[in-house]
TrEMBL record, chain A:
Oxidoreductase in keyword set: yes
E.C. number(s) listed in UniProt: 1.1.3.15
Organism of origin: uncultured Anaerotruncus sp
Domain BFD-like [2Fe-2S]-binding: 397-450
FAD dependent oxidoreductase domain ranges (all copies): 3-352
InterPro entries: BFD-like_2Fe2S-bd_dom, BFD-like_2Fe2S-bd_dom_sf, FAD-dep_OxRdtase, FAD/NAD-bd_sf, G3P_Oxidase/Oxidoreductase
Gene (UniProt): lhgO
Protein's UniProt name: L-2-hydroxyglutarate oxidase LhgO
UniProtKB/TrEMBL annotation, chain B:
Record EC number: 1.4.1.13
Pfam entry (one): Pyr_redox_2
UniProt source species: uncultured Anaerotruncus sp
Protein name: Glutamate synthase [NADPH] small chain
Presence of keyword Glycoprotein: no
InterPro entries, A to Z: FAD/NAD-bd_sf, FAD/NAD-binding_dom, Metab_Enz_Cyan_OpOx_G3PDH
Keyword Oxidoreductase: yes
Residue stretches making up the FAD/NAD(P)-binding domain: 2-296
Alphabetic keyword roster: Oxidoreductase
GO MF annotation: an example: glutamate synthase (NADPH) activity
């Protein structure tokens, strides 16, 4: 019998698992995919928002501001790429200038620190590649860029190191009420628990409705992106937003923590909960919108397109509460933007709700709250030399575009949540993230996974279960 | 202190190192990131290499081996499994490997021979899902020829460059069904012999003026949609053709790998994506030379060898400080229908008898004239019956003509 079972291990589930792992509780996390952070958490704008967007008084406003402060601390403690670069909301006419003032007022009410409005001239001085027609800009120095999947992986890993049990490849197919809690059935196993945290992202309504009366509905909303080569990564220093419209924050242009340029997203409601296909029209929409902010982006330097699903539900605010018809079943639903920023605060709120519902949570002794990770490329020269001297495998570069060494790949394969796929390795140490998109390193990463985890080479998949790479041997036969 | 450090041990690096050594550079070092010398030739197990240089038909590994053996017969030092992280303007090379750790190596001259990489799906923004089963042709070639594994059963190939054509045949010979080779342009960029021997001989249809407009499939490729394109290369609605397939191979161009060159501040030509080079293959940094696909993408390895020998020989000359006779500086400009030229700059004082100029045209032409003009005056013309973007063109400009030229020469291709 578990005290708490968390369903879903995206950023919200991972943050909640991390928070729960501080206490003397028996906690499990169930994830339907073969890795954590494998849906919306890996396909978004990768921004920790300052907190000026949400309406004052909403959960989104409160949790965004609090969450972004917590995220900064967590990223530092857990070795997550994070860079507080600040953000602009730019205006091109009087009407938009008025909107900028409104956002400023909202930000102040939400408690966002250090906000100010810059003249067009001041904005251009800080960001010379902006459209010179910019009239004014809201400047939020506390906005940051982050590696979102690394953030979730770090939180989940830390939870696991502190005793949380993670079960991958466990899709919840049924939930029954029992005398003192719930019996959860997955496609692999059954789990008994007193409390359930529903962090299933866009699937939150489906999971909820397995045991409770429908009370909200998911409205998957898709956004498409460009990720450009590092040659474009210095075009802007900050996250550049246009003025928000009714449909969202609009297309942003931002550097990534890896030094690339990210451009997107658009916003369209789609049928499929996991419809992450890009379209020619959608990409064109993103491209054209972004050029209004930064006219000099060279889209010939694009290295990848992707799309993500926003976990919208049929209400404006986050839904963070016990289900109306299922006792001790807590929904963390409708966590669209600023969900990544708010996640650490959402997790704390979830634990508070559990406590209010009677869960007695005593703090654990010896809680491990650090995470060491060697990012070879980021080390100064002397430390690079020292790392190789200690372990020669750091002297062998596997991913040439991103300078990722065998040492880093081996380390991640023996981490608390070892990846078994090429993209799992990519999400942990960046191999294959670069301009050749894994063309050179893919087969070598596959070889290392096979060797370290004793999985036959030909069985290693690219990403989710079923994404097989090899279809057979040649006439001569495979040699790995 | 090395006389010469060559970065890259593929065909370009091997030829440059050998020529540098025989040209008088005593302490020569090759740094190769892969486990063995030969570069991408090692996975090119088809024949057709060496017809120009060796006057015989070799496979890629055979061609590479000949040069590797030539290099091994000298005192040229080789470090494989070694990655160069950075080069500096004062010719220090920062490199790492598992044996020597972090090295800072000094050289009197450097030859850049890092080759190129393949353009990916992202570079052309093919819409759709992102399942497994989408490979660049070179990556697929590695899986099949080096590791011995097949990466698909029913294949659509985008791009009719040589690697795509070669892989169409290779996949077919290994039992896969290649459903189509799809080319955006109204002509193929591959060698004619490859169209015949790799597509026609196996009945693989070539769809010219078509492109992939959608990739479908959740975990693995399930379907590909291609569309005809108009003269502006925009897909024409209603022209869609569907293929049930599990694999897409992309042969959509190569990009010179110049991250090290850019890092040290070498001037890059946006037309080639390679360093701007002088007549002796020297880059904008004195004593740093470049050759092979890192300068511009070649069709035939034989031409890479020829260019790299010039780079290596001239690097040796530089080390032995025969010095560069500056003379007059001539800029080569591309005129009508010419995409780029290599070299981009000529110092006439450094030219012995003639300069070979390499370039590509932007379109397919019949019966045209290559015009070399300077200051509005025609210096020379060369007739050609056939020209195509897929075929690198070469003209030889004698020193006498260079002496007559102003500080700019324009090369253009015009109808007769």
């Amino acid at each position: 019998m578990y005290d708490v079972v968390v369903i879903g291990c995206g950023i919200v589930g991972a943050a909640t698992a991390y928070e729960l792992s501080k206490y003397q509780l028996k906690t499990a996390v169930l994830e339907k995919e073969n890795d954590v952070a494998d849906q919306t958490t890996k396909a978004n704008s990768a921004i920790i928002h300052a907190g000026y967007d949400p309406e004052p008084g909403t959960l989104m406003a409160k949790l965004n501001v609090e969450g972004s402060r917590l995220a900064k601390e967590l990223c530092q403690k857990l070795s997550v790429h994070y860079n507080q670069v600040g953000s602009f909301v730019i205006a091109f006419n009087d009407e938009e200038a008025k909107t900028v003032e409104e956002i400023y007022e909202r930000g102040v009410k939400n408690g966002v620190p250090e906000l100010r409005i810059l003249s067009g001239e001041e904005a251009l001085k800080m960001e010379p590649n902006l459209n010179p027609k910019v009239q004014c800009a809201l400047y939020a120095p506390t906005a940051a860029i982050v590696n979102p999947w690394e953030f979730a992986i770090a939180l989940a890993e830390t939870a696991v190191r502190n005793g949380v049990e993670l079960y991958l490849n466990n899709k919840v197919v049924g939930i029954e009420k029992t005398a003192d809690g719930y019996l959860i059935t997955t496609d692999k196993n059954v789990y008994e628990t007193r409390y359930i945290i529903n962090a299933a992202g866009v699937h939150c309504d489906e999971v909820h409705n397995l045991v409770a009366e429908p009370e909200f509905r998911s409205l998957p909303n898709q956004g498409q992106y460009y990720l450009l080569d590092k040659s474009q990564g210095k075009l802007v220093n900050k996250v550049i937003f246009q003025c928000p419209t009714k449909v969202g924050k609009g297309v942003l242009v931002a550097p990534t923590v890896h030094g690339n340029l990210i451009v997107g997203p658009n916003s369209h409601f789609v049928e499929g909960y996991e419809d992450v296909s890009t379209t020619a029209d959608g990409l064109a929409e993103v491209l054209n919108a972004s050029l209004k902010s930064v006219p000099g982006i060279n889209f010939r330097e694009n290295i990848r397109n992707f799309a993500g699903i926003r976990a919208y539900i049929d209400r404006e605010d986050f839904l963070i509460a016990e289900s109306k018809t299922a006792k001790n079943f807590i929904n963390l639903a409708g966590i669209k933007s600023p969900g990544l920023s708010a996640a650490p605060a959402i997790a704390k709120m979830a634990v508070d709700i559990l406590r209010d519902l009677g869960l007695s949570a005593t703090e654990k002794e010896g809680f491990v709250d650090t995470r060491e990770k060697i990012n070879f490329k980021d080390l100064p020269q002397e430390e690079k030399a020292a790392v190789i001297a200690k372990d020669a495998r750091y002297g062998r570069v596997i991913c040439r575009c991103e300078t990722i060494t065998e040492g880093e790949i081996v380390a991640c394969l023996h981490s608390p949540i070892p990846p078994k796929t090429i993209d799992g390795v990519k999400r942990r140490c960046n191999a294959g993230m670069g301009r050749c998109q894994g063309g050179f390193c893919g087969p070598r990463v596959q070889e290392i996974i096979s060797r370290e985890l004793h999985i036959p080479y030909s069985e290693i998949e690219m990403d989710k279960t079923g994404s097989y790479i090899i279809t057979g041997e040649t006439k001569v036969g495979g040699n790995l | 202190m090395y006389d010469l450090i060559v970065i890259g041990g593929g065909p370009a690096g091997l030829a440059a190192a050998y020529e540098g050594y025989t040209g008088g550079a005593k302490k020569v070092l090759i740094l190769e990131r892969d486990k063995e010398l030969g570069g991408i030739l090692n996975q090119c197990i088809h024949n057709g290499f060496g017809l120009h240089y060796f006057k015989e038909e070799l496979t890629g590994p055979e061609y590479a081996q000949r040069f590797a053996e030539m290099v091994r017969s000298t005192d040229v030092e080789v470090k494989t499994d070694t990655m160069v992280l950075e080069i500096t303007e004062d010719k220090k090379v920062h490199a790492i490997n598992t044996v020597d750790g972090y090295m800072i190596l000094e050289a009197k001259a450097i030859v850049l021979a890092m080759g190129c990489r393949e353009r990916t799906r992202g570079a052309i923004s093919i819409p759709g899902t992102r399942p497994a089963g989408i490979f660049t042709a070179g990556t697929a070639q590695r899986y099949v020829n080096m590791e011995g594994y097949m990466v698909g059963k029913r294949v659509v190939i985008l791009g009719s460059g040589d690697i795509g054509l070669i892989m169409a045949r290779r996949m077919t010979l290994e039992g896969a069904k290649v459903l189509a080779c799809v080319e955006l342009m109204p002509y193929s960029n591959g060698l004619n012999r490859n169209i015949v021997q790799c597509l026609n001989d196996y009945g693989i249809p070539l769809y010219l003026s078509h492109t992939i407009t959608d990739i479908q499939g959740d975990r693995r490729v399930e379907k590909v949609i291609i569309s005809k394109v108009d003269e502006n290369r925009k897909p024409i609605p209603g022209s869609e053709i569907e293929f049930d397939c599990d694999t897409v191979l992309l042969s959509v161009g190569l990009i010179p790998e110049n991250e090290l060159s850019r890092g040290v501040g070498i001037q890059i030509d946006p037309r080639t994506n390679g360093p701007v080079v002088y007549e002796n293959m020297e880059t904008s940094i004195p004593g740093v030379f470049a050759c092979g696909n890192v300068v511009h993408v070649h069709d035939l390895v034989d031409f890479v060898t020829a260019e790299s020998k010039r780079a290596g020989g001239n690097a040796a000359k530089y080390i032995l400080s025969e010095g560069i006779q500056e003379g007059k500086l001539i800029q080569l400009k591309n005129g009508d229908n010419v995409g780029y030229t290599v070299p981009q700059k000529i110092r006439t004082g450094n030219v012995d008898k003639f300069v070979e100029v390499f370039f590509r045209v932007r379109n397919v032409f019949q019966d045209v004239v290559i015009k070399v003009t300077s200051g509005g005056e025609a210096l020379s013309t060369f007739k050609r019956e056939h020209m195509a973007p897929g075929e690198m063109e070469k003209i030889v400009i004698p020193k006498a003509l260079l002496d007559k030229a102003a500080d700019e020469i324009v090369i253009s291709v015009e109808k007769e």
